[in-house]
Amino acid sequence: MNFKKEINRLNTNSVKWDLMAIEGKPEGTIPMWVADMDFEAPKEVKKALKRIVCKNVYGYSFQPDSYYAAVSNWFKKRYNFEFAKEQIVTTPGVVTAVGAAVRAFTQPGDAVIIQRPVYYPFSMMIEKNGRRVVNNPLMNVEGRYIMDIEDFERKIAENNVKLFILCNPHNPVGRVWTKEELLPIAEICEKYGVTVVSDEIHCDFVLDGKKHLPFACVNENAKNYTVTCTAPSKTFNLAGLQTSNIVILNRDLRKAFADEIERMSVGMLSPMGIVACTAAYEHGEKWLKGLKKTIEGNRDYMKAYIEEHIPELSMCELEGTYLAWVDMSGLAMTNEELKEFMVKKVKIWVDDGDMFGPEGENFARFNLACPQTTVERACKQLEEAVLAKMR
User: CB of 268 within 8 A of CB of 258?
Assistant: First the structure.
């Protein structure tokens, strides 16, 4: 569990690192954009993968009962979320699942509601599948985002919304939604017959002792209209192994979703993904505990550094995920000027805020899943660039 070690990921076909040269990023750029981690996976995962590699044959594979037990036991123990093997549908990724859900539960032209600024593939999956995006924007109250419940119900009623895609915990604003916030949302969705797709891929990154509440567990009825998207990919840095577990307790919803996955022919997992997911959920808890302390340390360091050295910026409250949402509007730049500033002057590759919707303009998302030395260098580069601009 060495979370201080800097790993050289160049020349590994890494999207995060090796695309810098292809995209023309300046020398010395620090990549803090796409949400994978610069940490080694747990040793038990590495051992499991080595055992598979040493077999020398990598043919078609199925998930044994031990796979499903590892997944269900993890969620039962940590979140009191219980489900059976038969209630899990596997997919290569959560975005794949979101796209499949849009097609399974809506018709072309139907309205799908989201809460921007939010993970940008939500809008992409809605629009590319010929559905209509309806936005219930989150409200930024002194650096902490909250839901506009009245607007949510009004938009659903006015647009005859069929599907709600929830981000829980929320990417990029870092909120961990409480029961008091989710309960009225659940009641509205039940009232209007809205199916909920809850992206809970960051559920294991709830910080400071807060608790993640699966949307399917908000009340007794929520399980009847909720599709819960989970994966070990963020938690254990396994995104490249293309393994996700979609939990659907309602039999009719599950059949509609599974039929769509079958039409796409994407449900089969790789032998590497199967053993990695199993090992991670069976043995990764101690590793995750150490990782979360590292993330909290990086968050606290960056927030304190900005407050002391770069008061023109402000970092939103980060309750969950490992993604810092930073308000850059104090630099008094246009959105396009800010993007150029980050690339050419700061030399940090971030996810620009407007990727998550117009509500994200003049924000930037920083990936803090890296050694603290990386965060320290990034803060220093950011400070020096801001000081040079202000002179």
Answer: no
Distance CA 9, CA 30 (A): 12
Backbone phi, psi, residue 243, to 5°: -135, 115
Length reported for the chain: 391
Identity of residue 309: H
Tokens of 300: 């606290």
Handedness of CA 276, 278, 279, 282 (dihedral sign): positive
Within 10 Å of residue 53's Cβ, how many Cβ atoms?
A: 11
What DSSP element (H or E) covers 71? helix 65-79
Q: Residue 45, Cβ neighbours under 10 Å: how many? A: 27
Q: Is there a contact between 41 and 369 (Cβ–Cβ < 8 Å)?
A: no
Beta partners for residue 141, in sequence order? 144
Nearest to 168, CA basis, from 122, 135, 105: 122
Beta carbons of 330 and 310 less than 8 angstroms apart: no
Is this structure's pTM higher than 0.90? Answer: yes
Token digits of residue 287: 């590793």
DSSP state of 250: S
Q: How large is the average pLDDT for residues 178-192?
A: 98
How many CB atoms neighbour CB 165 within 10 A?
A: 26
Domains of the chain, first to last? 15-42+285-390 (3.90.1150.10), 55-283 (3.40.640.10)
DSSP string, 276-333: HHHHHHHH-HHHHHHHHHHHHHHHHHHHHHHHHH-TT-EE----BSSEEEEE-GGG--
CB 83 within 8 A of CB 75: yes
Q: At what angle do helices 94-105 and 121-128 cross, to 10 degrees?
A: 40
In tens, the pLDDT along 118-165 reads 999 999 999 999 999 999 999 999 999 999 999 999 999 999 999 999
At 94-108, the pLDDT tens digits run 999 999 999 999 999
Q: What is the CB neighbour count within 10 angstroms for residue 323?
A: 27
Helix (H, G, I), strand (E, B) or coil at 155: helix
| Residue whose entry in the numeric block shows the structure tokens 């246009």 | 334
